[in-house]
Structures are given as C-alpha cells and as structure tokens.
Design goal:
Length: 490
C-alpha cells in the first residue's frame, strides 16, 4: 500500500481501494461463528464417524465424495468441530483465491483494476468463503489454474501450462462441475492461439496432450460417482415443474447479479463516447485475447446446464454447479467496468459503486438457518417431552426412505448434539415416505407416547408435521426462529 507524498498516514487511491476490499472481506468473515446451515451439518455429521463409513456413505449411498471431505475428516480430528474450526479452511481458501485472482488481474491491468476485480468476486460469491463446504477449496484451485494459464499465455513457459491443467484437475476432484473451467481454458488455447506468436509456438501437441491427460484422469475418477449421482432423485426432483425461462434468469443472475448488471451497462455506455480510449494515468496492458476467453468461460457453463435441463429435466442449474463461471466472470466484469471509465474520477466512482453493491449484498443477505438455537430449545424441553426427536431433513434425496438413516440427513442433531433419540423423517409425502412414517411411528411407539413430540424442520415445512399430527390425533403448535421451525405435537 502506498501513501500520498508528504502525508505519511493517508493512503493513495489504490490504498483506499485495498482497504475497501479488506473491509468487505472482514464483514463476510465476521459470520464465521454463525450457526451451521443444513448442508454444513450434514458434512459435520459424516466426518465425525470413521473414514470408512464416510467413504461408503459418500460413494455408494450418496455419491459426492471429493478430496474436500477427506481433508475435513482429518481437519476435524485435529481442530474439533466448532463453527470456527470447521469454517476456517474455507476462509483460508478464500484468501488464497483472492490473492491469486489479484495476481492474475495484475497481469492484465493496474493495481486499482485488480482490486476491483477481487471486489466483483465478493459480489458474485458472497457466502462460499465462510461455509464448511467444498466451494472455497474449488475456487482456490480454479484461481491457481487461471493464474497459471494467464502467465503461460504471456510468457509461453510450458511449466505454467502444466500447472494450470494440474490445478484445474484438482478443482475437478473437489467438485466435478469445476472441470468446465480447465476444459474451457483448454478450448480457448486451441481456438485462439494466433493472437500471440510465442503462445502458438510454445504450446506443442505433447504439452496439450499432457494437460488434457491430467483433466481426463480427474474426469475418470469422478465419472462413476457422477453417473450414480445423476441417477438419484435429487437431480430430477424438479423435472418439468420449473419454467425454463426462470432457470435461465436464475443462472444469469448467479453470474451477473442485478447490481453488477446495472454497473456493467453503465460502464459500457460510458465507453461509447470515448471510442475505447482510456485515461492517460491508467496503467493497462492489452488483454483482448484473455478477455475473450474469460467472457466465453463466464457464459458457457450456464448455457450448458440450461440446455442439459431442457433436454433431460435434470436439476443441474444450482448456482454452485456453475462455479467454474465465477472467476472468469469476475475478471471479465471487473476489467470491463474499470477500462470503460473515461477518466480517473470515473474509475473511483466505479470502484466505490462496486463497494456499495458488495456491502448492500452483505447487509441484505438472509442469514442461514439457526439450528443451534433450535437444538438448544429442544434440549431445554428434555424433561417434559418425548425422548424421540424427529428431524425433517432438507434434502431432495428424501424421496429414497432408505437414505434417511444416513448421518448426513440428520446433520443438525449431530452437529449440535441433541438429547434423546434422533429420528430422520422425510420432507415429502409420496407413497414410500408415508409407509416409512407409519413404520417409524410404530417402531418408536409414538402412537402411545403421552408426552409432547417435537419435530425440527427447515422453514417453511408444515406438510409432513401436519400429516404426523393427524395420524397421531394431536394438536400442533410451532415456533419459527431464523429459518427453523420447532413443531410441538401435544
């Protein structure tokens, strides 16, 4: 960070920008101690057990095993299972992602512009860096892959090409959808080699095959689980029920939130009168080749997932499934906004407007479910309630009752130990689920239970609780707090 001449303690414009980025990052990190949400509790429940059970559950019954789960299994045994301990790795991976994204952008623009690119990423991905989920690790690997690719495109050093492909393959072993990132960089290297003479000369067929081999290995490792996962109902739960245009809008907003969309449109309008000229004070390098590849990499994953849904009905349009788009989108949007500013004052305006969008996104973000408060409430009622606590899981895989005994699906009761016997119940009322509920009521003798029965569920979720109350001929009361409902059947 530099300071103004003669004013030792006053940062310059780039210094203030760096402080702004640090401030937004600090806001997000401040939520590291919040209660786990449903996906996090499932992970905590699984990694508390043996590695053999973890591997079996994540490869056979709920196929989504990756290097992240293995890492977190070892991490938990070293540092415990508190919110801080479990989320700290994601914060570290978030810092790594930001540093490599900054270094990548510095190869293409000034320090000021690189800081803006990092701030744009926090607007696109506001929560992934403070969750005990694999997405921060995935983005860290992708950031290394993109950085190595940009360095290679500018220097022609083959070592950076292999480094890019290796990091991309590791991202794919963390989350299989991330493989779209290195594959698109590979395609860009094949299609757009002519703009840089040293690039086309240095990228030999042997190098291309070596990089492709690393990515193919990652694909083959993940392929059996991917096929198995595709067959589960989770991907088909919404088949035919969600309008295709709604999904397309969702994908667009996931990569380009409304605030950034307005800012990007404004920057392009500002660019028109200047005919592409930039301020003389701006230190920029030519990056039209990389910008073209990043723009394509930011849009293609959304298009692929949208077309797959239209063709098969598979629900592959969750924003985390297009994670390969986030970093290219941040670079393309950030550089476009910064380079379109006709002068230094407009650059300041664009940066602090982005800062405002990031802060507004943080302040308006709905906190995750407060399972900790719900479990504390249930434990406080232990003496006056039934020893059996019903936990309504929030995963679509509940269409398969045979999965309900997985720790993953009763995660909140494992992440926050619940007094009594915890029993998972489904989140739907299909015929198989009704059979499961009837058997569960008999097995745990709940039809003859004199004390109130408590059900813990995500909000809104009254259908199953209402059904159980009717089957037991009981009245029902509920208390909703921070996205979680505790039902009492009395």
């Amino acid at each position: 960070m530099k300071f103004r001449a003669g004013r030792k303690w006053i940062p310059d414009a780039e210094g203030w920008a760096m402080l702004g980025l640090l401030g937004v990052a600090t806001l997000h990190i401040s939520r590291i101690g919040d209660s786990y949400w449903i996906d996090e509790t499932g992970l905590i429940a699984e990694i508390r057990g043996s590695f053999a059970q973890l591997f079996a559950d994540y490869t056979q019954r709920l196929p989504m095993f990756s290097i992240f789960e293995g890492f977190m299994w070892a991490w938990g045994r070293c540092f415990g299972y508190s919110e801080f301990a479990m989320r700290l790795p994601s914060v570290i991976f978030g810092v790594v992602t930001t540093l490599f994204l900054y270094r990548t952008a510095r190869n293409l623009t000034s320090r000021y512009g690189a800081t803006l690119v990092c701030l744009v990423l926090l607007c696109i991905e506001p929560t992934g860096f403070v969750n005990a989920r694999p997405y921060a690790m995935t983005l860290a690997f992708l950031s290394v892959s993109i950085h190595q690719w940009v360095v290679f495109s500018r220097t022609g050093n083959r070592r950076h090409w292999i480094g890019s492909c290796a990091a991309g393959a590791m991202a794919g072993l963390t989350k299989v959808f991330a493989l779209e990132g290195p594959l698109l960089l590979l395609a860009g290297s094949l299609l757009f080699r002519k703009p840089r003479e040293h690039f086309s000369k240095s990228l030999r067929k042997s190098d291309m095959l070596a990089g492709l081999t690393l990515i193919v290995i990652a694909i083959l490792v993940q392929l059996p689980m991917t096929i198995h996962f595709y067959s589960r109902s989770a991907l088909h739960s919404y088949a035919g029920s969600l309008p295709a245009h709604w999904l397309l809008e969702f994908l667009v907003y996931s990569v380009l939130p409304p605030g950034l969309m307005v800012l990007l449109a404004a920057s392009l309008m500002l660019r028109l009168p200047t005919h592409g000229k930039t301020s003389g004070r701006q230190t920029q390098r030519s990056y039209s080749y990389e910008m073209l590849v990043f723009a394509i990499a930011a849009t293609i994953p959304s298009a692929i997932h949208y077309l797959v849904y239209r063709a098969t009905g598979a629900f592959v349009v969750h924003r985390n499934y297009i994670i390969a788009s986030f970093l290219p989108a941040a670079i393309a949007i950030g550089l476009t906004v910064f380079s379109s500013a006709p002068g230094r004052k407009w650059q300041h305006f664009m940066f602090w407007a982005t800062f405002g969008i990031a802060v507004f996104g943080f302040l308006t973000h709905v906190p995750m479910e407060n399972w900790r408060r719900a479990v504390n409430l249930i434990n406080a009622r232990y003496e006056s309630r039934s020893p059996v606590v019903l936990v309504q899981s929030g995963f679509y895989e509940n269409a398969h009752p045979e999965l309900l005994d997985l720790p993953l699906l009763a995660g909140p009761a494992f992440a926050y130990p619940t007094k009594g016997t915890v029993v998972s119940i489904p989140s739907n009322l299909n015929p198989e689920s009704k059979i499961y509920i009837e058997k569960m009521l008999d097995d745990h003798h709940l039809r003859d239970e004199p004390k109130p029965i408590l059900i813990m569920a995500r909000s809104p979720a009254m259908m199953v609780a209402t059904y159980i109350a009717e089957r037991l001929h009981r009245n029902m009361a509920s208390l909703e707090q921070d996205g979680i409902i505790v039902f009492e059947l009395y």
